[in-house]
Write a structure and sequence with these properties.
five-stranded parallel β-sheet; 33% helix; 537 residues; alpha/beta; 15 helices; single chain
Length: 537
């Protein structure tokens, strides 16, 4: 059986799988389609700002992948490694320490982008809220409700002002849409509090250019966006940058300090870091493709969407597809067709597409749109925005849910409730019974372990080589060397273990050089001890 593996469940990956299912319907016994994504749902990202404002329910913006893709094998895992030479993809452990490895005949890279704080000064990565996916939208909505609830009882005027001040960095599509929804939600929410004067709400949009959405829309529509937001009470700071943040303030242009507990950064994104490690031709960190969507020089590797650098047409040299859903959904049928012809027969198709236009919602039944050269603004653009995006949402049930939410939103006030989840811990407290294996040789290194009570045995080649006791640690060797576990660790009697996640371990190693050296010395000592034992045998 031939296997097509698609990495990423965004617009590019999901639509490619949908078209492959149709094209390969008669060949499902000989060709398998696999889609790998870290969540089991597809997020309709243009709707995320409306999740913040409450116009639609949280689940209305997502669709279960299994309900969309009936004939695709779905793997809900993180991708840890792509090996082009072996034609394999390694997926993260789940409820175990073992990676899952799958082979492919054709690989589709649809990994999208990640938030990029690397070029930003310190503070934004630590304290600014990103706005990219569903969890970001939920976190931001929770924060807005939380600070207003707290401000209602706050008597310190300085602290109260910081709680009721919201700062958003970036005046592109994401920035203007999310700042509009923050403004609507905050001003609507405070009406329920007698102790808060609506005039105390302060919403600031910081933009480095002299016009909003300057790259995406015409000057007249950009000016309209700025004037409308200002009319709604939003302070728009043109020609400025959100340069840093602390737990208590936003820092603008490295000198102006604004007291705020809610700072949002819509910083530029970069291609997924997994792409960087691949031996493929790249441009701006993206996989360079030909007009067939083939990665250059690789006949069985394809790329689509935000992580791909694809010409808009073979006839237009120097013009490349922008990172928008509009282009990804048009690339998908071409990519699916070309994979089919590579596996079976037929002639490949080249990708050619001209943008139909752009739209942005501005909250409170207003939007801007430029479609086929026609400029729209105000309530008409808002209706057009809703109609077009409703038609684009995959799945009849999802369309119905969102249409119903929009209808009810016009009749019934939005419930501003928080949906808090338990905060993620950087460590886990674990208990093991006598003889339990904590991990086995060959497992993936994903935790550092510290013994808080009891002891464990270190086993190599079926033989115990040493024991570790309360206060000692283990598991650092695989984390430092990025290799598999070299020994099996078993509990010797009941024991309690503190497990520190790999990501948090790496943070410690980055910031505490002495601690890192201590771990490296321990690793070297254990290697020598293991070698001496092997020589004695």
């Amino acid at each position: 059986m031939k296997r097509i593996v698609i990495l990423g469940g965004g617009f590019g990956g999901v639509y490619t799988a949908l078209h492959l299912e149709k094209l390969l319907k008669k060949h499902k016994d000989s060709i398998e389609i696999i889609l790998v994504n870290r969540e089991n749902y597809f997020t309709y990202q243009p709707m995320l700002a409306e999740v913040v404002g409450g116009s639609i329910d949280i689940l209305d913006s997502v669709t279960c992948l299994r309900s969309l893709l009936k004939h695709t094998s779905i793997y809900i895992r993180d991708v840890t490694e792509i090996n082009i030479d072996k034609q394999t993809v390694s997926l993260s452990p789940n409820f175990s320490h073992k990676e899952l490895t799958i082979k492919y005949d054709h690989l589709v890279l649809g990994l999208g982008t990640v938030t990029d704080f690397r070029t930003s000064p310190g503070g934004l990565a630590e304290h600014a809220l990103p706005f990219k996916d569903l969890s970001d939208a939920v976190s931001l909505r929770n924060r807005i409700i939380d600070v207003i609830e707290t401000a209602a009882q706050e008597t310190d005027p300085v602290e109260r002002r910081a709680l009721l001040t919201f700062v958003v960095g970036g005046g592109g599509f994401s920035g203007v849409e999310v700042v509009a929804e923050i403004n609507d939600l905050a001003r609507k929410k405070v009406k329920a509090y007698k102790s808060i004067d609506p005039k105390e709400i302060r919403v600031i949009l910081v933009h480095s250019k002299d016009r909003l959405v300057d790259k995406e829309l015409s000057p007249s529509l950009g000016d309209y966006c700025g004037k409308l937001l200002q009319k709604r009470g939003i302070e728009v700071m043109f020609g400025s940058r959100l340069t840093s943040a602390t737990p208590n303030e936003a820092i603008i242009d490295e000198k102006m300090r604004v007291k705020s507990k809610t700072v949002v950064s819509t910083v530029p994104s970069i291609a997924n870091p997994l792409i960087e490690a691949l031996d493929l031709e790249k441009e701006y960190g993206k996989v360079k493709c030909d007009s067939y969507l083939n990665a250059l020089g690789k006949k069985n590797i394809w790329a689509i969407g935000d992580c791909a650098f694809i010409p808009v047409s073979p006839k237009k040299a120097g013009e490349y597809s922008p990172p928008t859903a509009q282009f990804a959904t048009r690339q998908a049928p071409i990519l699916a067709h070309n994979i089919k012809t590579s596996l079976l027969t037929g002639n490949k198709k080249t990708f050619t597409f001209k943008s139909l236009g752009q739209m942005a919602a501005l909250g409170h039944k207003r939007a801007v749109a430029e479609i086929l050269g026609i400029k729209l603004s105000g309530i008409l653009a808002w209706f057009v925005w809703r109609f077009i995006y409703l038609m684009k949402i995959p799945g009849v049930s999802a369309k119905f849910r969102i249409a119903l939410s929009w209808f009810l939103d016009m009749l019934i006030p939005t419930e501003t409730v928080q949906l808090k989840s338990k905060p993620k811990k950087g460590f886990d407290n674990l208990h093991y019974a006598d003889g339990d294996a904590i991990f086995h040789a060959g497992d993936t290194g994903d935790f550092l372990y510290i013994i808080t009570k009891g002891k464990v045995d270190v086993i190599k080649n079926g033989e115990k080589i040493t024991s570790l006791h309360e206060g000692e640690y283990f598991g650092e060797m695989a984390l430092l060397s990025e290799k598999k576990r070299t020994a099996t660790i078993k509990a010797s009697g009941p024991c309690k273990i503190l497990a520190i996640k790999k990501d948090d371990f790496n943070v410690l190693m980055t910031h505490f050089e002495d601690l890192k050296k201590n771990f490296e010395r321990t690793e070297e000592s254990r290697k020598k001890g293991s070698n001496r034992k092997a020589e004695g045998e």
